[in-house]
Design brief:
Oligomer: single chain
Order of helices and strands: EHEHEHEHEEHEHEHEEEHEHH
Strand content: 15-25%
CATH architecture of the largest domain: 3-Layer(aba) Sandwich
Enzyme class: oxidoreductase
Helix content: 25-40%
Structural class: alpha/beta
Function: Involved in the biosynthesis of the chorismate, which leads to the biosynthesis of aromatic amino acids. Catalyzes the reversible NADPH linked reduction of 3-dehydroshikimate (DHSA) to yield shikimate (SA).
Organism: Shewanella sediminis (strain HAW-EB3)
GO molecular function: NADP binding; shikimate 3-dehydrogenase (NADP+) activity
Bound molecules: 2'-monophosphoadenosine-5'-diphosphate
Radius of gyration: 18 Å
CATH class of the largest domain: Alpha Beta
Family: Belongs to the shikimate dehydrogenase family.
Low-confidence stretches: none
Largest sheet: 6 strands, mixed
Length: 270
């Protein structure tokens, strides 16, 4: 049986084994998928052990995505630009390939709800790892322009330097009184503590779709705020989670699982 795993620390609450188990069932693929807790300074050796035990592929989550990036023999364009890897694959020749499917999962989820994104304006809030991982897929999704704002503006400007050759992207101060956007994506961890980024309320109008990469049983603080400002639709990151898993599964098994039934099941378990 082909073996897969997700590595992280902590990892006990990872939904990846459940998600990939449901994908396997649905696509009639025979595989094992487990969660592995790697000590923070022993990720590389844990991974090595997994490959020696005939592991075929792995997902990588916090705090190992940057280390995984450094361990790959070959990288996808998304992974190169993200500077982080969430999907490792052992290829037939033994070469280890790194992909980053987080941003692809986000774009797939946006398209599932909104259809094509051609010509839309997007505001990305935050400039950490989660933001960086989503920029290339967003720029390649047909949107007209990506604006990045961050509490520490210099970090947003650095991302603009990295990505400006791939599309229309700019950085603005967080509280700028700008026009409204078609889509606003919160990539910050502010919802974890019930906070909301210090955005101008003018960024939202009645046609704006707001997306929080965080999720939970109750609407996130960002999405509650967005609704109060009159946003048309608020979405949370559960769809992105299942979306990135679906892209990983497709890389490994060459078959695309359906996202919706798995998402519905996960939602009932929150
Ligand atoms: P991740 O990998 O989840 O993106 P990260 O790299 O630590 O984590 O980045 C966290 C992001 O959330 C940053 O953009 C951070 O802003 P700063 O760069 O100014 O630190 C943002 N962030 C965290 N808490 C926030 C809050 N309460 N309000 C606004 N932004 C916040």
């Amino acid at each position: 049986t082909d073996k897969y795993a997700v590595f992280g620390n902590p990892i006990a609450h990872s939904k990846s084994p459940l998600i990939h188990g449901l994908f396997a069932k649905e696509t009639a693929q025979v595989l094992e998928y487990e969660a592995i807790l790697a000590p923070v300074d022993e990720f590389a050796s844990c991974l090595d052990e997994f490959w020696k035990g005939e592991g075929k592929g792995a997902n990588v989550t916090v705090p190992f995505k940057e280390q995984a990036f450094n361990l790959c023999d070959e990288l996808s364009e998304e992974a190169k630009l993200a500077g982080a890897v969430n999907t490792l694959t052992v290829q037939a020749n033994g070469v280890i390939r790194g992909d980053n499917t987080d941003g692809l999962g986000l774009v797939a989820d946006l398209k599932r709800h909104m259809g094509e994104l051609n010509g839309l304006s997007v505001l990305l809030v935050g400039a950490g790892g989660a933001a960086r991982g989503s920029i290339l897929p967003l720029l390649q999704s047909g949107i007209s322009k990506l604006t990045i704002v961050n509490r520490t503006q210099g970090k947003a400007e650095r991302l603009v330097d990295i990505f400006s050759e791939y599309g229309e992207v700019c950085a603005l101060p967080m509280e700028h009184e700008d026009k409204s956007y078609d889509i606003i994506i919160n990539s910050t961890s502010s919802s974890l503590t019930g906070e909301v980024p210090n955005l101008s309320t003018q960024v939202i109008d009645t046609s704006t779709v707001c997306y929080d990469m965080m999720y939970g049983k109750e609407p996130t603080s960002f999405n509650v705020w967005a609704k109060e400002q009159g946003a048309k639709l608020t979405l949370d990151g559960l769809g992105m989670l299942v979306g990135q898993a679906a892209q990983s599964f497709a890389i490994w098994r060459k078959v695309k699982p359906s996202v919706e039934p798995v998402l519905a099941e996960l939602r009932t378990l929150l």
